[in-house]
Amino acid sequence: MEDEQRKAFIREVFNSVCERYGQGSLRFFEYAAQHLPDLLILRGDENVLDMAAGTGLASTALAGQVPDGRVTGIDLSEGMLAKAQHRAEELGLENIVFRRMDMTRMDLPEEHFDLVNASFGVFFVEDMQSLVQHAAARLKPGGRFVTTHFAEGSMSPMQDLIMQRLECYGVEVPQASWNRLQNEEQNRLLYESAGLGRITHTRNKVGYYFKDAEGWWDVVWWAGYRGFVNQLAPEQAARFRQEHLDEVNALADEQGVYFNVEVIHTIGEKA
Q1: In a domain, 142, yes or no
Q2: Does the residue 250 lie in any domain?
């Protein structure tokens, strides 16, 4: 898929899922964002950029920690940004602004931010090194770049099952893009390629149990998987859904279906 086609696809998918993204069965996004303030230990007056801000979970978590600073959240999806704005208003945060912007072509000044955050966003870009270099250029000397990515094994075995079943239905499924940043070594090499140093990694488990496979289907339908399921004809989609729910329910134990999610937070500093 060409770069502009990829961006258009991502924008369309996330506009379609924005209503429930990061909520309910997808609450692991919020759990991951809640770890950021403790990891970063902010002074309170920082100027923060949140790339791929989505519904504003990380943006608002950080804005609450910089009462004398400011957070700028950017995203490709206007639907996600509308939800982010609503969230900020509900929380009474006035030190935050959201803008629709392509993070690979940011119209933002260089050496302007104390912190740049990117939660679950870098891996969507084909040329990750250029993106991180572009982001690092917006940091002041001594500023920090922080990312959150899925660790290896996250969402398995459900993710493996749905990808295999989609392929059986003739849907072309690319390799999961987040696999490129699923361990500390991959993240370290990316940071170093962009000239960032003093690199640290922290892992956090943010998974939980679903009552049954319907909880997992909420993840499928209200996240990026929907774009692949929507390639099926309606009668195929109904059959696909039932077959997939049956195989996921077969994984249940006495507590339900465990949704395994572990994240890696990586922090690096600009010289």
Answers
A1: yes
A2: no
